[in-house]
Amino acid sequence: MAVIVCGLMICVLDSTMLNLALPQMARQWQIDPSYTLWVVNANQIASLVLLLPLAALGDRLGYKRVYLWGMLVFGLASIMAALAPSLPWLIAARALQGMGMAGALSVNGALVRQIYPRGMLGQGMALNSMVVALSTVMGPVLAALVLSQLNWRWLFSLHLPLALWVCWLGMQALPKPRQGSDARGLSWWDVGLNVVMFGSIFLALDRVSHSQGGQGLQWAALWLGIGLIAGVFYVRRQKRETQPMLPLDLLRIPVFALSMGASISAFSAQTIAFLAVPFLLIETHGVSIGRAGLLISAWPLALAVVAPMVGRKIGRIPAGRLGAMGMSLFAAGLCALALLPVGAAACDIAWRLALCGAGFAMFQSPNNHTIVTTAPVHRSGAASGMLGSARHTGQGLGAVCLAGAFVLWPGTEGVAEQRAMWLAVAFAVLAACFSGLRYTPVAAASKN
């Protein structure tokens, strides 16, 4: 678990640190700041399109191999990023980093399932959630400390030694591939269709989120059309497979399908809220940037505190009940933020954000546990890949919804942010409904 925790922390820190460095990059290369967004987008696209193929490869060749190769590629790509002489070089290095990150994240849940005893698996999932929350808090803080004294290139400097350490320790500590692993490779046609489908849909959502006054929607429609056409061929090919890369067969399991729907809805709500809160505090309520950052940290800190406590309850309380309660608390916190009075005190803001974090923690670990354990053991990699895909899908949908709110209500102080919060409440309530519909009795959960 030290290997899993350290690898997860490296990936999350890398994702959360770089946003603060984009203005410095734009100044150094004297380019439009909008072009630097591809430093982030390239990483996200590469990670998204390879999650399912690498998860399927993990089911065939062993999760340990995929994880260690992913961490090695991530570390080497970090050196390329640190030495990048131009923006295109940096974008290519970030895409390679995303490929390595996909290798580590695609089999993360499957490895946790292999490592933990059945009765303690919920605690392992909760530990993952806690690490992600703490890393989310630490990322911007570490980036600010580094960038205040050094160049943005130093943000990548520690990745290689840490990744090499994870690989060295992982070779000794991670569980060996189970006997009877299928040594077959993957169909390049299926990998290509997966890349085109998810990549095109991501680009379509990106175009929608950056469109103004209807401009750019034609490109969004084009990318969406390409993604849908590729998806039709992809799904037809996958239906003939006994162990498909796109695990549609797992969606035939009602509990798994409901958990996936809950995950997508919950991450949509979280993304809308987490992106809208800075605008709400700074632009609408006049909170300073530094103070807003401290207040927002109440959200992931509450998640980090509550997640371990919830982990110990998984298997004792039905996961569907925990998830529904968590999303109900989350929705209540979002409602409180949407109704935040002007001139509210810091403690009045902090408890609302902490309530959101605590509610999400109560939902996330049980829901992840259900997704990973509902699938057969030999399909743990596919379930882990679907878990990551649900997170990416929800985050993309949430970002588009927030952008749509700003397009529909431009120039109206606080209105777009407030209505975006109400949309987040709707997504949270939907996630609570999905969770409540699941039937996961304690006895069945303990057997998994």
Automatic annotation (TrEMBL):
<keyword id="KW-0812">Transmembrane</keyword>
<feature type="domain" description="Major facilitator superfamily (MFS) profile">
    <location>
        <begin position="1"/>
        <end position="443"/>
    </location>
</feature>
<feature type="transmembrane region" description="Helical">
    <location>
        <begin position="91"/>
        <end position="112"/>
    </location>
</feature>
<dbReference type="InterPro" id="IPR036259">
    <property type="entry name" value="MFS_trans_sf"/>
</dbReference>
<feature type="transmembrane region" description="Helical">
    <location>
        <begin position="124"/>
        <end position="148"/>
    </location>
</feature>
<dbReference type="Pfam" id="PF07690">
    <property type="entry name" value="MFS_1"/>
</dbReference>
<feature type="transmembrane region" description="Helical">
    <location>
        <begin position="154"/>
        <end position="174"/>
    </location>
</feature>
<feature type="transmembrane region" description="Helical">
    <location>
        <begin position="66"/>
        <end position="85"/>
    </location>
</feature>
<feature type="transmembrane region" description="Helical">
    <location>
        <begin position="322"/>
        <end position="344"/>
    </location>
</feature>
<feature type="transmembrane region" description="Helical">
    <location>
        <begin position="186"/>
        <end position="205"/>
    </location>
</feature>
<keyword id="KW-0813">Transport</keyword>
<keyword id="KW-0472">Membrane</keyword>
<feature type="transmembrane region" description="Helical">
    <location>
        <begin position="37"/>
        <end position="57"/>
    </location>
</feature>
<feature type="transmembrane region" description="Helical">
    <location>
        <begin position="288"/>
        <end position="310"/>
    </location>
</feature>
<dbReference type="InterPro" id="IPR011701">
    <property type="entry name" value="MFS"/>
</dbReference>
<feature type="transmembrane region" description="Helical">
    <location>
        <begin position="420"/>
        <end position="439"/>
    </location>
</feature>
<protein>
    <submittedName>
        <fullName>MFS transporter</fullName>
    </submittedName>
</protein>
<feature type="transmembrane region" description="Helical">
    <location>
        <begin position="217"/>
        <end position="235"/>
    </location>
</feature>
<feature type="transmembrane region" description="Helical">
    <location>
        <begin position="255"/>
        <end position="282"/>
    </location>
</feature>
<keyword id="KW-1133">Transmembrane helix</keyword>
<dbReference type="InterPro" id="IPR020846">
    <property type="entry name" value="MFS_dom"/>
</dbReference>
